[in-house]
Design goal:
alpha+beta, six-stranded antiparallel beta sheet, 24 helices, 44% helix
Length: 773
Amino acid sequence: MLKSKLSQLFCVIILITGWLFYFYHDLILSPNDYLTADWGDGVKAYAVFIGHIKNDSTYTNYQNMNYPYGQTHIFTDGQTGIANTLKFLSNYSSFFLDNAIGLYNLMMIFSFVGCAVFLFLIIRRLNMPPLFNILGSICITVLSPQIFRMMGHLTLSYVVFFPLSWWLLIKFTESSKKILFSSLIILNSIFWFFVHPYYVMIISIFYGFWWIISLLQNKNFRTKANFLFSFLHVAVPLIITRLYVLIVDIHAFRSESPIGFWESYARWNTIFIPVLPPFLNFFKFFLPHQGQEFWEGWAYIGLPAVIVTLFSLFKIIRYLFRKNYRLILKPVLPDFLKAAVWASVFVLLFSMCLPFRLNMQFLVDWFPFLKQFRSLGRFAWVFYYVFTVYSLYVLYLAYRYCSSRNKIIALCFPLIFFSVYLAEAYHYHAPVSKAVLQGKNYFNLKFLPDDYREVIDKVNQIRSNYQCIVPLPFYHIGSENFSKPISDEMLRSSLVISYWTNLPLLANSAARSPMLEAKNIFQFFSPPYIHKEIEKDLPNKKSFLVFLNKEELNLREEEWKNKSLKIFENKSFELHELSYDDLFKNNSNELINDFRKIKPSLFPCNGFLCSSKTDTIIYKNYDDRESKITYRGKGALRGVKKEYTILLPETNYKLLSNKDYILSFWYYNKDELRLQLSGIFKETDAENSEEIQRISFSPDRSMVIDGDWSLVEIKFRLKTNDSRITVILGGNDDSDQEIFMDELLIRAADIDFYQTDKNGNMIAKNAIPVKNH
């Protein structure tokens, strides 16, 4: 009954569809009702996808983020190719806009069907019984590690991408129509680039290793034609997509060293230890310290494949002892697996940041393009698919071997294999299927809560008076050099309100955002007596609409909130108006005049004049340190990123535990990578030197920028009066890049501190310089 290819394929489609309906029937039947992730990268992916379709005037740029610059859409995680297709079709039918989120969700879910189909087309080449072909393709599909992306990084949840790409490569090797399948391989890789750029990189890395292994394994393969085809398969898609970016990307100075290469890689435990039950506790019993916190590297291959891994390692060791090296390089496997298995192993090593982590960091300097791979763990997906197919074949060989001796024992192999895979997959899909129904589709009017509707209606009434929305708390992610973390609630609400009002956000959440644009946007929040580069890039002098969701604000955000005028409030949100002049009109002369008036009433303290009497002020100008770069004065504190630089030595500075203080210092921000480091403010017990509190900070979050210097500010309150404090920077990577700090100040938060020159003229207020203009 199931001997024909079509009948087996039909059975695969029915079974995988049944599995999906069992777990995701609500999402499948009402796909336009839900956001499978309404926070973080998930809601951002939905917003830039449907926002591009509805609001953008071009097919290449996204205008409602990173104001006033916008973003090249391919960097927004918005499935540019699919979004543009729906954008074009929406010109002829509103169906494609009204149901864009539903289509997005269905594509994610039914990519599992495509994955199972192409895995079946691959597996059937192993000449196994129909049961192995059908259940094997189902089991590998449903345990796919990409399932977890449906709850966050949605664009990377298309499980079909690799089986399809591998199948095309197999068809290329089997067919005499080399040009046809090479063309399909190139088009396929380019298509996946326009879904997410990582797909084309993953495919190309696999193809590259596959060609290298194939050429090593088979001398007859080393023809001029094959060298040409290898170039076509690997390099041409990368060249074409790179040219696309160079042509359409109008933004300069994107980071060439995104954060993550040395952190977001796969570990052996993320591949060979379960992520979830039912066998997780079994592994934890023997390996209690192996957690699964490195989620970017999740590509668990399943318990049966783990056993096959141990068996394969045993065979390789035996071949080594017997000096049978040929069987290591050319294993006795079906042709399409011989090179693919070893290629997947090398891709796995790459996903583990090997050999770079083995004191070979210099390779990254030799080949700087490697730094673009900020999430190496994703490359482990290649190993998952190839090695599970290989494991299925090993299972079949074991089954066939035992069948001639004891059929009951032989039947145990597939029974255990498939049962274990389905049990593990059940524990994947059961929680995921519940999680993806938690978020309602706020891009569908009928699901908008009343508080959202109220603020959207208000913004639509007054939107012509404003040039953009300024969300507070502010967020900006992606430049790698100037960055402020995202509040999930603010991200969700600001994106939704921007979508419905078509008013752009000053904020940003997009990969590889231009550094200078980010710096200018951060400088927006600097005091008006600091020159702001962003002013020349603004298209008009309209006011700014400040959007607040009543979360806690930092010092600078609070300052600008207080300077703005409240115009709307409901139970969840506030709208304030911030005038253009308040932001950009230099008021330094006014400050200087005000200082002259109050100067006689100020209190001297440690070289400063203070608005209230205080005995507490800590100031270090570092003028006793030679430095080629300074913010003010003769010197500055110099350090090296890979070493710990002590800004404030540990001691008791006589601070009180019942007062709020602000620690600030100026940090040199010029050049890429300079801001990629972290700092620690630490309070320790005076007697036992035990840590009492720790505050982590990073210079890249500064919202006060004066040229090439950023003001780092930390608000703190000590736990005890007699404790000791210290401030440390750096020590978190292998970089020899120099860092520079200047003008460190600890002051009471409720007192203004004025610095004067030798003539008594004010030169700075609360560490920020004030200059005549």
